[in-house]
Amino acid sequence: MSERPGSSANGPSGGLSGSPRGRGSRPDGGRGGPDRSRPWTASRPAARPRTGDPARRVAFEVLRAVEEQDAYANLVLPRLLREQRLDARDAAFATELAYGALRGRGTYDAVLAACVDRPLAQLDPPLLDALRLGAHQLLATRVAQHAAVSETVALVRGAVGTGASGLANAVLRRVAARDLAAWLDEVAPPSEGPGADPVGALAVRESHPAWVVRAMREALVAAGRPAGELQALLAADNARPLVALAALPGLATPEDLVAAGARPGRWSPVAAVLPEGDPASLPAVRSARARVQDEGSQLAALALLAAPLLGGGGADGRGAGERWADLCAGPGGKAALLAATAAQRGARLLAVEVAPHRARLVEQALAGVVAEHPGTVEVVAGDGRAVGDERPGQFDRVLVDAPCTGLGALRRRPEARWRRTPADLAELAPLQRELLASALEAVRPGGVVAYVTCSPHPAETQAVVDDVVRRRAKDGEPVEVLDAPAVLRELAGVEDAGTGLRAQLWPHLHGTDAMSTSLLRRPL
């Protein structure tokens, strides 16, 4: 699944497994302004906060946009931070609250359900979102209890109404009566013994829908991993991901990024990692010579370029004269890496994106490459499923970064775990197969196709490849499946990337998104 625009927020803090962050060191929760170290009482009504502080309001608006508009947090949050002009400390706190509440929603809802005298579905949705923010502060940050309660109640008073604020106050005081461990012992089903529900226990404790817990277990087993790694995998989804950067070859180097404050990446030869701060503060990122991109995504694109071709190919053996295609290019992360490398090697790239607005994002992502190497890239708003018929056998290398459920990127897109359903697996399956089939028609004999998803689920990975390969063999058009883990080992020294021919990365093992990569080659 292609990276979403605005992924500069791919390093939000928060999460049930991350180190607690917050504002408990000052009486008012870390903000400036009146000292609220003493909770308001009937005798001190003027001390009662009225609307909540700006950081909490921004986090609340993020949660409302996700719920009401099906928005992506990593797109909404940066815009709100700019509009509200929060300083660095308040921006970090708003980010912590928004992402922490989204990641922990399953756990917090279980706790809140035990503190409310009615089903949560009967609460006004804005009130429920505010309670989730309050629960996150009380159970997973160092915010002082009185500040968490009073500021959240003020938020409810301003955003929902005075009547709702009384309920919020009562509920949050019940939440504050216990710490997270004690609440989990009460609200999570037992994982063993009489009445055991291991899936339900993990769903509550690690804040994932039960179907995702089962799906991740299936994904581990399908990839040859022990099912006992399941809790570590789910916990990794709740940990704070670092901001990974890709230096576009020929335009920037990892050393440039390190000199600007980053540190070397773990796997990708073009990667660097920004421990903290805004990636846009780096000159190479501002000038489109480097991008925010998970190392797993970088490796998927680089694996396509490292896989050996048969026959033909570049006149110099490195790629000069080759033609490459990206059939699902939006919003442009992998396309930018391919385009920059194409310019270095003397190849050309066709970047196809079905949605016109996402095609424009591809053009923006490739701006740095195009400025330095005009004529290297052609961006087309079109359907990747048609490329095989329209341009059969014209390409040496083809990338299919297929639309998928995104289950491998839940640490960066926490709202996806609550938005996706098992039905999405079935709905996406025909599209994934059609795109891979188109790529295999578009690539020349001896050329290579990379089928990539940011989901580890076998229904979106191995099943798609097996089905398409089987159909082609039946039609007398066999395809060779290459050893993708071996390619990653040689390319970047990646170990434990799969026991079969499909490469599968994992957040709990490799510190990347759970990217799946299969490499296929048409025989001569």
Features:
2 domains, Rossmann fold, 524 residues, 4-stranded antiparallel beta sheet, 8-stranded mixed beta sheet, alpha/beta, 11% strand, N-utilizing Substance Protein B Homolog, Chain A
The number of distinct helices, counting runs of at least 4 residues, comes to 23
> Average pLDDT across residues?
90
* CATH topology annotation of the largest domain: Rossmann fold
Q: Report how far the terminal alpha carbons are from each other.
A: 30 Å
Judging from the principal axes of the Cα atoms, what is the shape? globular
Instruction: Give me the Rg, rounded.
Output: 24 Å
What's the architecture of the largest domain in CATH terms? 3-Layer(aba) Sandwich
SSE diagram, text form:
Elements: H1 54-69, H2 73-84, H3 88-103, H4 105-113, H5 125-140, H6 145-159, H7 162-175, H8 180-187, H9 198-205, H10 210-222, H11 230-237, E1 243-247, H12 254-259, E2 263-264, E3 271-274, H13 283-286, E4 290-292, H14 295-306, E5 323-326, H15 333-345, E6 348-353, H16 356-365, H17 367-372, E7 377-381, H18 387-390, E8 395-401, H19 416-419, H20 422-442, E9 443-453, H21 462-474, E10 480-481, H22 484-492, E11 503-504, H23 507-510, E12 516-521
Parallel strand pairs: 5-6, 5-8, 6-7, 8-9
Antiparallel strand pairs: 1-3, 1-4, 2-3, 9-12, 10-12, 11-12
Explain this structure.
By secondary structure, the chain is an alpha/beta fold. It folds into two domains: 18-181, Orthogonal Bundle (N-utilizing Substance Protein B Homolog, Chain A); 294-521, 3-Layer(aba) Sandwich (Rossmann fold). Helices cover 46% and strands 11% of the residues. It contains 23 helices and twelve strands. The protein has helices spanning 54-69, 73-84, 88-103, 105-113, 125-140, 145-159, 162-175, 180-187, 198-205, 210-222, 230-237, 254-259, 283-286, 295-306, 333-345, 356-365, 367-372, 387-390, 416-419, 422-442, 462-474, 484-492, 507-510, and strands at residues 243-247, 263-264, 271-274, 290-292, 323-326, 348-353, 377-381, 395-401, 443-453, 480-481, 503-504, 516-521. Strands 5, 6, 7, 8, 9, 10, 11 and 12 form an eight-stranded mixed beta sheet that branches. Strands 2-3-1-4 form a four-stranded antiparallel beta sheet. α1 (54-69) crosses α5 (125-140), α5 (125-140) packs antiparallel against α6 and α14 packs across α22. The longest helix has 21 residues, at 422-442. 56% of the residues are buried. Mean pLDDT is 90; it is low at 1-15 and 17-47.
